[in-house]
Amino acid sequence: MPRFRSVLTALALALGIAGTAAGEAGAQSVRDTFKAMQKGEVVRLTPKSTLVLGGVADNLLARCKGRISLNGPERLRVADFLSLAATRAAVGGRYSDPDLGRALGDQFTGLALYSAAGQAARKIQCGRPATAVLRYIVKVADGTGQSAGRFLESCSPVHGAGRCRCLVKIGQSINPRFADGPYSRRAVYGIIQANPFLGLQVAMKCGIVNY
After folding, report:
1. Counts for the chain of helices (H) and strands (E), in that order
2. Alpha helix (H) ranges present in 19-121?
3. By CB atoms within 10 Å of each CB, which of 27, 114, 159, 196 scores lowest?
4. Distance from C-alpha of 130 to C-alpha of 132, rounded to nearest angstrom
5. How wide is the angle at C-alpha 26 spanned by C-alphas 23 and 27, nearest 5°?
6. For 97-153, what is each residue's pLDDT tens digit?
């Protein structure tokens, strides 16, 4: 654990600098995410933590390849999260916003955060350090730091617990308060409006078609 924290300390510093590419708000988001990691806290899945951790995962998977000691299920979960984060970064979270400037601004900010995190992740050595960071990302993606009781209680009878947890993961990448309240059809529709490609993931990955 001390070695893992020392890696994250160096990474947090690098990300604090690189994150300025996305503006001060983006840089602060990057710093907050990695301060939580240093303390051993599992951060809540939000649009910004999705982009930051997605950029990190993208870099580590591409650069380290055979030098990561993840088991089969862990690799699948990291790949699933990376697909979500990359889609969020590429399309943004305001696809249907009638204000084109805001829509493009959100997309640019997301891409900048994702890219800055990926660049800073080059500070992480392959092998045990990279594996430790990716396992942390799996915990975040699994919702270990997420409180979604009300949402799951109302969604599970309709779609099943597994599908609803999948829905929470996608929804939180769009709206940090997605799972704070009870389930509603409007919640799913909100994902589709914000990012239709993530709306496709709701159907294809979560298996939620009729909502």
Report:
1. 10, 0
2. 23-38, 47-64, 72-91, 100-120
3. 196
4. 5
5. 85
6. 888 888 888 888 888 888 888 888 888 889 988 998 899 889 888 876 566 678 888
